[in-house]
Structure formats: structure tokens, C-alpha cells
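So, can you check?
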Amino acid sequence: MRMLRSRRLPVAGFAGLAGLMVLAGVVASAAEFRRLPVREYRDKMKAGWLGQMVGVSWGGPTEFKWKDAMIPADQVPQWKPALINEAFPQDDLYVEMTFLRTLEQYGLDVSIRQAGIDFANSGYPLWCANNAGRNNLRRGIAPPDSSHPQFNKCPNDIDYQIEADFSGLIAPGLPQFAIECGEKFGRLMNYGDGMYAGQFIGALYAAAFFETDPVKLIETALAAIPHECQYAEMVRDLLAWYRAQPDDWEMTWRQCQRKYRENPEYQQASNGGIDCKINGAYVLLGLLHGRRDFDRTIILAMRAGQDSDCNPSSAAGVLFTTYGAENIPRRFTRALDELETFSHTEYTFPKLLTVSEQLARQVIVRSGGKIIRENGEEVFLIPTLAPQPSRLARSWSPGPIAGSRFTPAEMAQITARNVPRAVTLAAGDVLPGWEVDHCGTDMDPGLRAEYAGRRNVVLTHPLDRETGCTLTRKVNLPAGKTSMLRITVARDLRGDFDLVVRVNGQELLRKPVNPQTTTADPWLVQDIDLSSFAGHDGVKLELVNQPSGWSYEAAYWAGLQVLHH
């Protein structure tokens, strides 16, 4: 491809370069450019989204069914064209579209705090680092602290790695934008290697618009993350192991297992098989040993096991981008329903492509590029800028927290609550007038038709080891009467918790609900005197299912009554 060449500028970081261009009036011709016809960009970007959809839907039936084991060849699902539509409800896709929507609504310079507010308001179920980060945001812990290991116990999980594809698809040839997106969106839930994993994946996509060879792609993307991080070490290992034995993918898998699963040095701050390094290794295993074959790349990334739908999704997304949609076999795409909407988004497939292109145009111009016309055809002129990786951070020895908290005005924008829908519905029926917040998903909270001799009981569970599940209600207490709150609650027979009662912010009770306070009967009936608040309207009652350890911390609520005498 023809290159337009001129004098280079020293690069001192993305933000600094952008500012230099504005202040000094430097135009795009002051850098080296690569040409990318817009029609070719559209074709490759479309292919990248299609690859994600094909990979995640093909691997879906195998997800986490093989842990620390290769999937046998005869257990690999058969591809069927209609499978591609199984991608529409996949979190591997709709979570990253939350970030895409934030960029669409607020622009490329949207603050990390606004990104956090948008993510906090997402309504889909989440797990691992995503769930921990979003819970922190909803509690008022603003980014970047929402992902800091002090508040997030799984910062090296795979989450941003499987959600960063968009950052490269809207930044052709511009890995620095993928780095910037990692610092803005990846830091909502991941720290250290967990964030670098997403920056690396974004850089792979950015490179895939100009490079097809998997080895060169990976080497190019490697420059976008800190050389000293363990994720970069994993990338270098995969390249070395592949070069040593390019015809033996199973040997590469075994080497991954020995170092990145069995060696405790590489399991620090790790959440087992959901760790970004081992799953990132399987993405690269598929790309390298797949030899640019569509089926082989996806199947090998899948057969490696662990998160075996997300990993082939990433591998296929990058590979398909290198080919372009026009070169993808029709068996992968002919059944695509272009009228279907991705779950929890406003995007159909055509609208997704439109928004991606709109953002890409902005990214290119913002990065010092141009959009020109040649012979009636639009062409992107994309500057070749060396990536400036993020600062090195390690999840097992993190730096200090930023002390970032949302302001009251920002908290007012976060309307979503940390509570499963089943709990909201159950509380509405059994505990009318009470609102539930900070309810975790452990022990399947919600309605129980019967528990320990009582019918229609609501089970709640603390959000995490520090954050109790809270039931809140405001009441009017008449003057001249004795008012009392009667609480009927039980523990799980295998566990315990602390019952905390606050009235207008004043703690009136903190009591263990355990075998000593409930004897053989798991039920506790506790009365709280509200007389001192008589004559007041809007009295705020808060009941907290507070963890006292982390073993069967559920509370079973059978009744909450405000009585007047």
C-alpha cells in the first residue's frame, strides 16, 4: 500500500500529541500516513463484529465445561448458519456496546466518571470483575478506585479483555486509542494485567486493518502494553512456543497450563480459570496455530477450554477483520437477522455498523488524520503513531487508591440498584413498601414458597464481604402513640449474619442472628421501639443483612410490620 511520507514528529503520548497539534497548528501532513479507503474500512469493521458473533455463538455450548482440560475433538459443536443469531443475547457483545453507546452520546472525550455512571446504570446481569466494579460504582466508589484491588477482589479477570474489541474496530491503525479506552472503560472493573489484556486485544483489532500475518499482528499489539507486565510475558511466551513447535498446538496448550495455571507466581490476584492471562493465551493459540483458517482458528481457541466462547470470539473477531466481510464464507453469515436487537442495547447489526463508522471518523480526525476524496471515493489518511503504553501496575502489589468518590449529584444519576429482579418482585409481594438494595446473587435470592415452617419468605444475601443487603422504607409515625417495628427474620441453618437496624441514620440495634440467638429455631422476632420518633413524617427505617463472615450469610424475611398502640 502506498505511503505518504514527510517529516516525523516526536511522540510524547497521545494526549500530549493531540494538544500539540491544536496549540501549534500542526496538521496531519507532519506525520507518516497510511491510506485506508472507507469502503475497505467498512468491510473490515463489519467483519470484526461478525467474527465476534460467530465465535461466541459457536463456542457457547462449551463455556466453562472443560476447565484445565482440552475439549475432545468429538465434543466440538457443529456450526449451523442460524447459530450466529445466538450472539444477540451474549454479554460478550452487549457489555462492550454500553461503552460504545457512551462514546456515541458524550463524544470521545467523555470523562471516566460519566463512563462509570453509564456502566453503573446498566441493567444486565454481570459476574466476576464486571460485577465487582459495577457494585462499587453503585456504592459510590468512583473510577479509577472501582477497579482497585482494595475494593475489587478479582481485578485480573477476563472481563475487559472480552469487551475491548470495539476500541480497535473504531480505531483502524491507531492502537493509542485502544490504550485510551482501556484507561477509561477498562479501569471501571479491571486493574493491571486485567486492563492491559483489553488494551492488547483492542490493539490487535487496530492492527488487523493493515496486517494479516498473525505473528506480526501479535508483535504489533504487544507494543501497546507495558513490557514488564505478566500479560506481555504471556504474549512473548506464546510467540516463542509457537515458533518452536508450529505444528503442535497441544504442546503449546500444555506449556500454557504448566506456567499460567500451575505456577503460583502467575496465579497472584487470579480468579482461577477466569484469569485474563490463561484465556488470552488461548486466543493467541487459536490465532497462531489456526494458520488463518476460519474454522481451525475458532475450534482451537475453543478446544483450549476455560472461557471457550469468549476466547474464540476474540480470535475470530481479529481474524475476520483481516479478511473483510466480503471474504467470509457465506455459511457464517447468510442466516444473520439484521432486524434483531442486541440485548440491553439500542443496536441492530446495521445500526452497530453505522455508529462504529461515525466514531471511527472522529477518532481518525482527533488523532491527526484526514478524510479525503480520491477519484470520487472517500479515503482515510491515518497517521502512524507509536503507542505509549499505560503505566505498569500489579494487582498483587497495587499502588495507592485515588480516593475517588461520586458526588451526591453524580449519585443521583445512578438510578440502578444492586438487586436481582427476583428479589424486587418478591419484596413487592411479601414486604410491601420496602425497597431492597445491595443484594448479592449468592444463594439465588428471591421468593421462597416455604422456609422453616413459614410460607412466602424473601431471601436476601449481602452484596459482598463488606456490604450488607439493605431494606429501606419511610414511614409517618403519629404523635401520641407508641410505635414499634416488628421484624421476623431467619438465618440459614448452615450460617449466620448480623442484623443492623438504623432509624434516620441512627443505629438502634446490631445483633447476631446465629445459633445462640435463635436456638434450634432459625427464626428471630425482634421488636424495635420507635416512640422517640413519634410525630415525625418520613422516618427512614433501614434493616441490614450484614455479613459476619462469608458462609451462608442469607437472611430470610417473613414479615416487617410497623405497629401503633
User: Anything to note?
Assistant: The CA atoms of residues 341 and 348 lie 4 Å apart. The chain has two domains: 3-383, 418-564. The first helix runs from residue 14 to 24.
